[in-house]
Design brief:
The complex is a heterodimer. In chain A, about 35% of the residues lie in helices and about 35% in strands. In chain A, the strands form 3 sheets. A 5-stranded antiparallel beta sheet of chain A has the order 10-1-2-11-12, covered by helices on one side. In chain A, strands 5-6-7-8-9 form a 5-stranded antiparallel beta sheet, covered by helices on one side. In chain A, strands 3-4 form a two-stranded antiparallel sheet. Chain A is an alpha+beta fold. Chain A is globular, with a radius of gyration of 16 Å. Chain A is built from 4 helices and 12 strands, in the order E-E-E-E-E-E-H-H-E-E-E-E-H-H-E-E. Chain B has 4 helices and 12 strands. In chain B, the strands form 3 sheets. A 5-stranded antiparallel beta sheet of chain B has the order 10-1-2-11-12, with helices on one face. In chain B, strands 5-6-7-8-9 form a 5-stranded antiparallel beta sheet, with helices on one face. Chain B has a two-stranded antiparallel ribbon with strand order 3-4. The longest helix of chain B is centred in the first third of the chain and has 22 residues. In chain B, helix 3 packs antiparallel against helix 4. Chain B starts with 9 loop residues before the first strand and ends in a 5-residue tail after the last strand. Classes of the chains: A alpha+beta, B alpha+beta. At the A-B interface, helix 2, strand 9 and helix 3 of A face strand 4 and helix 1 of B.
């Protein structure tokens, strides 16, 4: 039921995710943060059951952190992080799969913004824009129409806002709040949220 | 929908006179939704050996990594390139190893052996191999591809004719299949070089 939307622009990546957490007919909360910070310059928007969301993101981010600690501060590129996540998903598939679909976005000096679309089976593909969940069916055509090469951050944010508006209009499930984060040369930053994740 | 049709693929490998060609579509889908139109399913394993992996995309990527690893190991130990026959045999073995929990991938192998003779083979998801002299196909529209290949193929084509044949056979086949298409790529392997061309097709 989760919605995760990602758009790559000249100089970074924007990822937006809905903030609803629920099961069956009940909504538990509307301020859940589904975009996990992996490293100083990468983040992962995750769609799936809350247990796998937390388990998978913690596992990946802690292992990335361990690599940096064990290797004298060497940072893993976004591509490397995505490949690591893919490897874990693929290995777990035939044992105890993580039922998470992921959009991993990050910023590197050389390659600037990059966005990776990973599904729960471990299929990995580098994309300019992507969505996970039912949202795929609603927002893909907005991407095709409005995403240009060499977009600015403002253009990317406009596209994301347009996608959120579309979901609010046409998607059956109520997802009132969205959290939007960006990653650029300054690192991971929250642009806006509907519900404050810190509100316990 | 079968698990082999989850992501969608169409791959043809064909032999000519002292050359082989391998062509694939570019779609990455999740059932009926198209995620990307630049997904690679044909991989260069060595200068004269290409493998086309059709089926579940995660297994395509896993198998590719496994094959790169095994080829690298062979090259270090044997200090020579792996021949297409040996590669095909290795791939068959890798697939059968997982007989009761297989990789959902049905590959085709296309290459030129040491003498410059074309080599083609295909196999099913558990590694049952077939070696042919004309063409091998795999993917979600094999019926279409067999029909097109049987009609358009003639023996001993030169590289230009081979390219034209492969391109037309692929494009016509994928146009009648919802799960494959969205562009195409053709690699023509000759004794001296490999020419790669992108195909302009219906983007639907």
């Amino acid at each position: 039921m989760d919605t995760v939307i990602g758009v790559c622009y000249e100089g970074g990546v924007i990822i937006a995710a809905d903030q609803s957490n629920g099961r069956s007919i009940l909504t538990y909360q509307t301020n859940l943060d589904k975009i996990a910070r992996l490293s100083s310059h990468s983040m992962m928007g995750v769609s799936g059951p809350n247990c796998d969301l937390v388990n998978f993101t913690e596992y990946i981010s802690k292992n990335i952190n361990l690599y940096e600690l064990s290797n004298d501060g060497t940072k893993l590129s976004t591509k490397a992080q995505a490949n690591f996540a893919r490897g874990e998903l693929a290995a777990a598939l035939r044992k105890g799969p993580f039922q998470v679909n992921v959009l991993l976005g990050g910023y590197d000096e050389k390659t600037k913004g990059s966005l990776y679309h990973l599904d729960y089976m471990g299929t990995m593909h580098k994309v300019k824009h992507g969505a996970q969940g039912y949202a795929q069916h609603f927002v893909s055509s907005i991407f095709d129409k409005d995403c240009m090469p060499n977009m600015t951050e403002e253009d990317a944010l406009n596209v994301v806002q347009k996608c959120i508006k579309e979901i609010h209009t046409r998607f059956l499930i109520s997802q009132p709040n969205f959290i939007i984060k960006k990653v650029d040369k300054n690192g991971v930053e929250v642009i806006s949220f509907g519900g404050d994740p810190a509100d316990t | 929908m079968s698990i082999l049709e989850y992501n969608g693929a169409a791959i043809i490998a064909m032999a000519g006179d002292g050359c082989v060609g391998i062509a694939s579509d570019r779609r990455l889908g999740v059932q009926l939704h198209t995620v990307a139109t630049d997904f690679t399913k044909v991989f260069r394993m060595s200068p004269k050996l290409y493998v086309g992996l059709g089926g579940l995309a995660t297994d395509v990527q896993t198998l590719h990594q496994l094959l790169e690893f095994r080829m690298g190991l062979y090259k270090l130990k044997e200090e020579r390139e792996m021949s297409p026959q040996v590669f095909s045999h290795l791939l068959s073995h890798l697939l059968y190893e997982k007989r009761f929990g297989p990789y959902f991938c049905e590959p085709v192998v296309a290459g030129l052996d040491e003498k410059g003779e074309p080599f083609l083979s295909g196999m099913d998801l558990i590694g049952a191999p077939v070696t042919t002299k004309d063409f091998v196909v795999t993917g979600t529209c094999t019926g279409n591809m067999y029909g097109m290949c049987e009609t358009l193929y003639k023996p001993d084509m030169n590289p230009e004719e081979l390219f034209e044949t492969l391109a037309q056979a692929l494009l016509s086949s994928v146009d009648r299949d919802a799960m494959s298409g969205w562009g195409g790529v053709v690699h023509i392997i000759t004794a001296d070089s490999v020419t790669t061309r992108e195909l302009k097709g219906r983007m639907d």
